[in-house]
Amino acid sequence: MEKMPYQPQLDTVVSTLSQTNTTKQPTDWRNGLPVLTGSTMTLREMRVSDAASLFFALTTEEVSRFISPPPTTVEGFERFILWAHRQRAAGQYICFVIVPRGMDTAAGLFQVRSLGPGFATAEWGFAMSSEYWGTGMFVEGARMTAEFAFDVVGVHRLEARAALKNGRGNGALRKIGAVQEGVLRRSFLRNGEYLDQALWSIIADEWRAKAVWGPRVVVH
Ligand SMILES: CC(C)(COP(=O)(O)OP(=O)(O)OC[C@H]1O[C@@H](n2cnc3c(N)ncnc32)[C@H](O)[C@@H]1OP(=O)(O)O)[C@@H](O)C(=O)NCCC(=O)NCCS
Which CATH superfamily groups domain 28-214? Predict the structure, then answer.
């Protein structure tokens, strides 16, 4: 999440995409993401109507302090969502919105972006309203997203970067079994300061061999 690939200043394309209908389950993720159902949440494609709830969930100081600055307005989130749809259609990027069980509003997101041809290597990131921190939702959502990336998209290596100062982000990666490979010195500019980042990875084969993240995902 530290390197959120969406850059509002570069997004000048006027999109004609309408809101995504997630009740139709596409067979190719480039045509639309499936709904992944867990015990604490659902992950689904973002809709333009999620913009307001994502704005309130992700723009607080505690959520955004160690990640790339999210859009600063609801309209900015609408543009981000349409950009995400285009990037998904181009086979470059996946973004699931988190909908907590029993709710119909978005509480955060899991995103995965391709780092090379064919999505073999990818970087993921995540952010969730602090209301849901420490509830177990992160672990379940991470498992569902990783499973989708490895089994459906064909990712072989999933990387994450977390500012060293982001104790909670690094703790979250450690607890799902990611391996810290090193430190990317002064690699992330945030609030005028270059921060060191930890580089984490999960390799598909290792993840499958452990398979410790609870029951399989239900795909509707
Ligand atoms: C990252 C995020 C989605 C994780 O969700 P979460 O619900 O907070 O994660 P969890 O509580 O399940 O796991 C965090 C772990 O880090 C630990 N932790 C918290 N603060 C810590 C610190 N300062 N140092 C080390 N570990 C810490 C927690 O104790 C927990 O481990 P435990 O469950 O074994 O006790 C959420 O914190 C978030 O949205 N953060 C803001 C966005 C962000 O920083 N994203 C980038 C992450 S790379």
Answer: Gcn5-related N-acetyltransferase (GNAT) (3.40.630.30)
